[in-house]
Amino acid sequence: MLNFIRSDFAQLVAYQPHPGGTSGEPVKSDITIDRLDSNESPFDLPNELKEKLSWTYQQLIENNRYPDGSYIALKSAIAEYVNESAQITNITLDNISVGNGSDELIRSVLIATCLGGEGAVLVANPTFSMYGIISQTLGIPVVTVGRSETDFEIDLDAAQQAINQTQNPPIRLVFVVHPNSPTANALTVKELDWLRNLPENILVVIDEAYFEFSQTTVAAELAKHPNWMILRTFSKAFRLAAHRVGYAIAHPQLISALEKVRLPYNLPSFSQAAALFAMNSRQEILASIPQILAEREQLIKNLSGHPALKIWPSAANFIYLRLAPTITDQTAKLTTLTQQLKSQGTLIRQISGGLRITVGTPEENQRSSQRLKTTLESFEF
């Protein structure tokens, strides 16, 4: 009926946030929900910090005024943190752009590089779906290559061939995640070398959303690669998923291009305050990481011995697993498994032929492990 909508929109699929999608019927209200499907931190901010943030909202934020659109204080704090965490000194606020979540920054960089038929995007699947989704909504072609079924390393031969052969428009933007979602593997030396050797007319976006868990970053290399950009978020280790704050680190000229695309006042005052608060309280907030990493290893240990499961190592705050290769009708069984776990109170993500499970609290992990094992026992393999 809406003939003014772009004709290609019928083929597009919107991102499904939890607890929607096709994961089964809604969970009964009397069941404790373990939300292990979105890679959030299982821990809210400490009460003392929440109280201080509430005071900031009550006493300092003027609701009738627009937010500070310069973000100077927040950018400066982020630059300090990047330098500190990467043991470098060259990042300044001119290297930082902030967005309403990393998704907005992904959209901005696509607009600044590929819009108007000027470029295509390269991604290696499976990976974060929003690169493809946002590109397609903007009418930007997406070229996909595969990954090794053994360790999920990018098929670099196929990627290089795609760059060499794709024309009208050529590939202008490459997205990688470090470590990757949903497979949780960090970039290898071979993959990084390939990225280092890409020509400067191709922008390389390295998404480090899970940096605080992997402690692996390419920030020290940015000065040598003006065609590289790092994306990070406050939604994971910094426990601010509700506030939707992401940031980009890049050459000042690239940041300047993003600023031309950025909508005015894109970050609400309270989100700004929360992010700045998190930066200033980072030691206390990030203190939960060792526990999450320990729980991750325990979760992998608990599930690794099951003959029906194949589990990969993780450099993030989630694990990725698939059913054993000998099992038939895997998609149907994964769907049933996801639905049955949801009916018991465990939300996980069925994705790319497997299951992505966020590391939760000790209690959540124990319940979910037991539910998964019990459900698998009812299957016929």
Structure explained in plain terms:
This protein is an alpha/beta fold and 381 residues long. The chain has helices at 47-59, 72-86, 101-113, 130-137, 156-165, 189-196, 211-214, 252-261, 269-280, 282-285, 289-304, 330-344, 362-377, and strands at residues 34-35, 96-99, 120-124, 142-145, 171-177, 203-207, 228-233, 246-250, 309-311, 318-323, 346-347, 349-351, 354-358. It contains 13 helices and 13 strands. Strand 12 (349-351) and strand 13 (354-358) form a beta hairpin. Helix 3 (101-113) packs across helix 4 (130-137). The chain is globular, with a radius of gyration of 21 Å. The model is unreliable at 20-24 (pLDDT under 50).
Give a short summary of the structure:
With 381 residues, this protein is α/β, with parallel strands linked by helices. It is built from 13 helices and 13 strands.
